[in-house]
Amino acid sequence: MSAETQSVETGKSNEVRKRPAQGWTGRISSVLLLALIFVPVMAWQWYDTRHEIAGLQHELAKRLAESDASGKESHHLAAEATEAGRRVETKVNLLEAKLAESQSQQLALEALYQELTRNRDEATLEEVEQLLLIANQQLQLASNVKAALIAMQEADARLQRIDRPQLSPLRKILAQDMDLLKSAPYVDTVGISLRLDNLAASVDTLPLKMELRPPETVSSPHQIPATENIWLRFAREAWEDVKRLVRVQYMNQPDLALLSPSQAYFLRENLKLRLLSARHALLARDVASFKADLDASVEWISRYFDNESKSVVDMLEALRQLQDSEVSIELPRISASLGAVRNYRIARDRGIR
Question: pTM of the prediction?
Answer without folding.
Answer: 0.45
